[in-house]
Amino acid sequence: MSVLKRKRNISNLEFYHNALKLRMMMTEFLLKDFGLKDRRRNLEYAKEIYHFSDEDINQLENILTSYNMKNSFIDCFPSWFIDKERMYFMDLLRDLIHNITCANTIYITNKEEYFERRNYQNRAISICEDLLQEMQYIIYVCHPNAEKYMVYVDIIELEITLLKGWRKSDNKVAKNLGNFYNSSVSGSNFANVNSNGNANNNNASNTNGVRP
Question: Distance between CA atoms of 70 and 88, rounded to whole angstroms?
Answer without folding.
Answer: 29
